[in-house]
Amino acid sequence: MTEPLLKVRDLTQHFRMSRTFTVKAVNGVSFDIYPGETYGLVGESGSGKTTIGRSIIRLYNPTAGSVVFEGKEITGKLDRETEKMLREDMQMIFQDPMSSLNPRKKVGDIIGEGLDIHHRYASSAERDNAISEMLSKVGLSPAHAERYPHQFSGGQRQRVGIARALVMNPKLIIADECISALDVSIQAQVVNLMKDIQDSTGCAYLFIAHDLSMVKYISDRIGVLHLGYMVETGTTEEIFANPVHPYTKSLLSAVPIPNPEVEKRRKSIAYDYKTSGIDYTKGTEHPLEGTHSVLCTDEELARWTA
After folding, report:
1. Domains (ranges, CATH) in the chain?
2. What is the DSSP string of 113-176?
3. What kind and span of H or E run contains 249?
4. How do 38-42 and 221-226 pair as beta strands?
5. What secondary structure, in 3-state letters, does 17-37 show?
6. 159-207: per-residue pLDDT in tens?
């Protein structure tokens, strides 16, 4: 196995709201992403998925922990060279395709903004060619470069967001619930587009979502978040075939089955952290088979695997 493209170790992100109250959004999360793979991050709303993505790309300054990207530490104060590398080689696709696009700019200027900032072209013709090629790659017409975001549908706007991320030819793309605002048929188109682009460019994805069926389809490995803690991680097969943590089992049991007869007999497993008797702060990471691991105490692991 090659060296990880991204190493996240004990990432902590707290937001101090007042003298007496601090929101502990992320607590000691660790994982790796390898070149060319897709790492899925799942969990319910408020579990800390988006915060992790924004902390990694430095939209937030991490409270504690270490993030190493391409062998360079990107937490703390960044020097000019490291910041330039981070802004060029890591990009983000945001959740809402409308609010993340400047309504006053044409699509061509939105996609080309990264090229302008980092001086990635020698002439205006080269810039226009790069934008046209990227629009074609995401399934839009080069003529769309002269339109404004409000003139597109939701799926088309998300394609613009993908094109804006891809035009820099990044090594890692953080996709923050980039399909949750789209219709189901459009979701499939966008996810297939992302897989095709990954095959052609070799980029890696941190795919943040709460739709487990999509995560299963696109991800090589999966991390399960709850209340800011990484409670279980492993390959897609390990997580779906042999979930260990009660929260993971609860998540998987809630996935609808596209078979009316089977769906009628499906039973959801309830999980309430307050009444579960589990204390995440006392748990440690227990390696299981392969890359599969779970956050728990020794007693909990013995009980769950008995």
Report:
1. 6-98+171-185+203-305 (3.40.50.300)
2. HHHHHHT--SSHHHHHHHHHHHHHHTT--GGGGGS-GGGS-HHHHHHHHHHHHHTT--SEEEEE
3. helix 246-253
4. parallel
5. CCCCCEEEEEEEEEEEECCCC
6. 899 899 988 889 999 999 887 777 777 788 888 888 888 998 889 999 9
